[in-house]
Structure formats: structure tokens, C-alpha cells
Design goal:
Elements lengths: L13 H15 L1 H4 L3 H37 L14 E12 L2 E12 L2 E4 L1 H6 L8 H11 L4 H12 L5 H11 L3 H7 L10 E12 L7 H9 L17 E12 L6 H4 L18 E9 L4 H15 L7 E5 L3 H13 L4 E5 L1 H12 L10 H13 L3 H14 L8 H12 L6 H7 L6 H15 L8 H15 L3 H16 L12
Parallel strand pairs: 4-7, 7-8
Antiparallel strand pairs: 1-2, 2-3, 4-5, 5-6
């Protein structure tokens, strides 16, 4: 029996054909000829969606008739996922399927056994989802909800597809959609690089406002014990204890681009005549990951695992850019030992410049234009590898100026920072080797992935929802959303239909 050779009934798509003919007739009416273009767009959008939904429904009904007729002629041997046969056939089992065109009904045959669950081979042939909402609708939910608020995403979907999805279900679809991201990247093969290409790793953290039950235990307990100075607002330095720290990680490749200090900081008086500023290394093959559910140790381990996949034999130079936080640096060094790889830790130059600016205002009046030259001179010295010497100079200047107490707070902070991190401030070697010295990639990712979506005004997140949106935005930023979705749909099919019987040849 060859079910695919069955002739197509002339009335299989009769309902859709009538709708199409009616739409064509309405478009030909004189009244329609007087509509402005935007009303014509609205007419075609609404009626066209109804037509597509009816085509979908007619096709499903045709498949159901073919399955029913073929089963009556030659009943196949159907096994369930438990390996037991399902000898009894029952027709007319229906389920709803919400699609991007509207809701349709999937009617199919059920193969039954008294002591076991029903088996619907048509579900596997159609690769139907676990719930009511189609994979196409779930993908639309992901594409909208990772870019805008759930309210705005829900409104967009309803305007396009009709009322096929509630806001609560929209949020749960994102959680389900993010479930295969880690497995996807474990299987992904990245383009190989030459041994001279620098492998750059970086990580950063940013807080997300969470609902109370989603906070870490220590944060929740501290917030409960905290007594605020004012009833209606926070005092200076006080925090309300509503945030949970999310960690982002980045790995990228960069061809070495040797530079000199004055390629980074313009010296007082400007560049010498004829000097052309050398460009810095350019990131390519950027990969981002992140988590708010897991701590920084987990994310940094992911970063090192990914870097290991790019350079399994450790033939390339590994550069780790950090912001100076001791805890982050300790985690990096611990992962480097676990992976048996030598890494070059470089503290972000922007953080160093911020410390210098804080010190500069201890010696200058607000608005003094000479402060820029002062910062440039000391920044150039640090870029030349003289961080400790610069710290000594700043301390001596503060002593000579007679600064005391709060007047020299910025200087003392900068001095401690330079001395405490001197081993990671060898910018002279980094510039000569052509390495990046700034964490712009990960800082930009923190703004784009977290701040632009997870930090919108008034948002308070549950843990599962925040984790899903963060990870899906990282996948989207990596340019992998299309490839990931194909992987996710295939993985979902394997989970739902582990014993998919391809020899069940009853359905068109």
C-alpha cells in the first residue's frame, strides 16, 4: 500500500478555497476600491491569517482521513515507548494546536492497550510539541520576549496571531526554549585559528532586580535584617537588597596588534607630527555565556571549557581580562590550574584610568582643564610598565601638597590599587605583544544583554525567567539563534518520541 499515491480529493481544501474566493470577491468590490492602503493592509492581514489557518486545518484533516483509511485497509504493528504493542485502534482523537495562524485541531488515530498509555503515531510524524503551542509560535515568543517586556511581547503576538497565547504561558515557553543551550554549545565546532591568534577570555557581573523568593539566601537574610535610615528613600550608601548578581563570560579571537602607549593615550600637546595612531586588536569569533542562577565560579568554568574547545593543545596565547576584583582573579587562576594552561591576566585599563581620575581631583579644582594632562602623564607612565613608580609618585605628591584625611582619599585608593595589582599591570608587555588591554567586549555585553532587557524599569524577575532570557539573549548576540532553534526542535522531538517509528507509513 502506498498512501502517498492516494488521489487528492477535490474537496479536501474546499473550505479554504471558499474563503479565498470570498476574499477575492471582496477585493473586487467597488467599495473596497475606495479604501486607503492602510485599511487594505488591515483587511488582508486579518482575512489572510484566517485563510492560512483554514489551509492548515484542511491539510491536517486530509492527513487524518488518509491515516484512517489506510489503517482500515492494513493495520500496522505499533509499539509504544515501553516496547509493548498497541493492538487496539480508536479513531477521532483530537487535540488543539495553537499556531502563528491561529488555533487548529489535530485529529488522529490512537493505538491503545488497556494497561498502557495511548500511542499516536501521527504526533511523531507531525513532531507535535508537548503542550498546545507550536514550535513556530514558541520561536516567535522567544524572538519577541528577549527583546521587549513580556507585556509588549504578548501584545505583539496577539496582534499578529490572535489570542493564541497567554502572558504566563509566554514566559514558560522561554524557560522551555532555553533548556538545550548548554548542550548546543558543547556540540558546536568553532572555526580553527592559527597558533599566533590570541585567545581572549573575560568575565563581568551585573545585578538584576529579583522577586524576594529568587534572591540568594544570604541576600534575602541581609535584606530582612537591614534597617534603613529613612522610611521613604535610601540614604547614601544604603542598598535595598533586591538584586541577584548575574555573571557574563566572553571568549573571542584576536590577531596581535602591537601598539605603543601614545597609541592608547594621547600625550599632552597631542601626537607628534606624522604619527599615525596604530589600531588595537579586533575581536572576532565572539562567544558569550551567562547565568544568574549559578555563581561566578560556574560561568568562569564555562568560559575556560569553551576556550579549551577552541585550543585543546594550548598552542595559543591565553589572555584573561579582568576588572581587578580579587575574587574574580582567584577564580580565573583556579580554573587555569584545573585546565593546566598558562594564562596572562591583564587588568582592564579603563578601571585604572578611573582610579587615576579619582586621584586627580585631590590635586585640582572642579572644572580645571589641566586635570586631563595630569591624568595623561600618569596613564602613559603606567602604560610604560611603571605602575609601582607611579604609585610612589602619587603618594609623594600628596605628602608634598599636605593633603590629609578625606582630601587624599582618592589618592590613597589609587595608590593601593596600583601597588596591590602591580603583577597584572604590565601594559608595556601587553602592548608590545599586541594583546587587548580593555574589557569593552564584556562591558558592552553586560549593558546589551542584561541592562537593555533585564534591567528595564519596574521589572522584578523570577529565577527561571531571568536565567532563560539572559541565556537566550546571549545566544542571539552570538548570532546562533537560528542554528540553536533547529537543534532545540530536534532535541525536543527525540525526547518526546524516542521510539519514533519511521515505518509507520500511513500519514502524508
Amino acid at each position: 500500500m502506498e498512501p502517498y499515491d492516494m488521489p487528492l480529493s477535490a474537496d479536501s481544501f474546499e473550505a479554504a478555497t471558499k474563503m479565498f474566493d470570498a476574499l477575492v470577491s471582496d477585493l473586487a468590490l467597488p467599495e473596497t476600491g475606495g479604501l486607503p492602503h492602510h485599511e487594505l493592509e488591515e483587511l488582508l492581514d486579518e482575512r489572510g491569517r484566517d485563510l492560512l489557518r483554514q489551509l492548515f486545518q484542511d491539510h491536517l484533516d486530509l492527513r487524518e482521513r488518509r491515516e484512517r483509511d489506510a489503517a482500515a485497509t492494513c493495520r500496522p504493528h505499533v509499539l509504544g515507548p515501553d516496547g509493548l504493542p498497541r493492538p487496539r485502534l480508536e479513531r477521532g482523537h483530537g487535540r488543539l494546536l495553537a499556531t502563528v495562524f491561529g488555533t487548529v485541531t489535530v485529529t488522529r488515530c490512537a493505538w491503545r492497550r488497556l494497561d498502557a498509555s495511548n500511542v499516536h503515531p501521527a504526533d511523531a510524524m507531525l513532531s507535535l510539541p508537548r503542550g498546545r503551542h507550536s514550535h513556530g509560535l514558541a520561536r516567535l515568543a522567544v524572538q519577541t520576549a528577549i527583546r521587549m517586556s513580556f507585556d509588549a511581547a504578548h501584545e505583539t503576538i496577539v496582534r499578529r496571531c490572535g489570542r493564541v497565547l497567554g502572558k504566563r504561558r509566554l514566559a514558560s515557553l522561554l524557560v522551555e526554549a532555553a533548556g538545550d543551550i548548554d548542550d548546543f554549545y558543547e556540540a558546536k565546532v568553532f572555526e580553527p585559528c592559527t597558533d599566533s591568534t590570541v585567545l581572549v577570555l573575560s568575565a563581568d557581573g551585573k545585578g538584576i532586580v529579583m522577586r524576594p523568593e529568587a534572591l540568594r539566601e544570604a541576600t534575602r537574610q541581609a535584606a530582612a535584617k537591614r534597617q534603613h535610615t529613612f522610611r521613604t528613600r535610601l540614604a547614601s550608601g544604603e542598598k535595598n537588597g533586591r538584586k541577584r548578581m548575574a555573571t557574563l563570560g566572553a571568549v573571542y579571537d584576536a590577531e596581535p596588534a602591537p601598539r605603543r602607549p601614545h597609541d592608547v593615550i594621547t600625550p599632552p600637546g597631542g601626537l607628534a607630527d606624522g604619527h599615525v595612531r596604530r589600531p588595537g586588536p579586533v575581536a572576532r569569533g565572539k562567544w558569550l555565556c551567562g547565568s544568574v542562577e549559578h555563581d561566578a565560579e560556574h560561568v568562569i568554568a564555562q568560559v575556560f571549557d569553551h576556550a579549551q574547545a577552541r585550543d585543546p593543545d594550548h598552542r595559543r596565547t591565553w589572555v584573561v581580562l579582568v576588572d581587578g576584583a580579587r575574587h574574580q582573579r582567584d577564580l580565573v587562576q583556579a580554573e587555569a590550574r584545573l585546565h593546566h594552561v598558562d594564562v596572562h591576566i591583564v587588568i582592564d585599563i579603563i578601571h585604572v584610568l578611573e582610579k587615576l581620575w579619582s586621584a586627580a581631583w585631590c590635586f585640582h579644582q572642579p572644572g580645571d582643564p589641566s586635570v586631563e594632562d595630569w591624568v595623561a602623564v600618569h596613564a602613559l607612565a603606567i602604560l610604560n610598565g611603571d605602575a609601582v613608580e607611579t604609585a610612589d609618585t602619587l603618594q609623594a605628591q600628596a605628602d608634598q601638597a599636605g593633603l590629609t584625611g578625606e582630601q587624599r582619599h582618592g589618592v590613597d585608593t589609587c595608590v593601593r590599587y596600583l601597588r596591590g595589582n602591580a603583577d597584572f599591570l604590565h601594559y608595556d608587555k601587553a602592548l608590545a605583544a599586541g594583546w587587548p588591554i580593555a574589557t569593552g567586549i564584556i562591558e558592552g555585553a553586560a549593558r546589551h544583554i542584561i541592562a537593555d532587557r533585564l534591567d528595564i524599569g519596574g521589572a522584578r524577575w523570577g529565577l527561571a525567567g531571568a536565567e532563560a532570557v539572559l541565556k537566550l539573549r546571549a545566544v542571539d548576540s552570538n548570532g546562533d539563534l537560528d542554528a540553536y532553534w533547529q537543534y532545540h526542535v530536534a532535541a525536543e522531538h527525540r525526547r518526546l518520541y524516542p521510539s519514533d517509528q519511521h515505518n509507520y507509513g500511513l500519514i502524508a
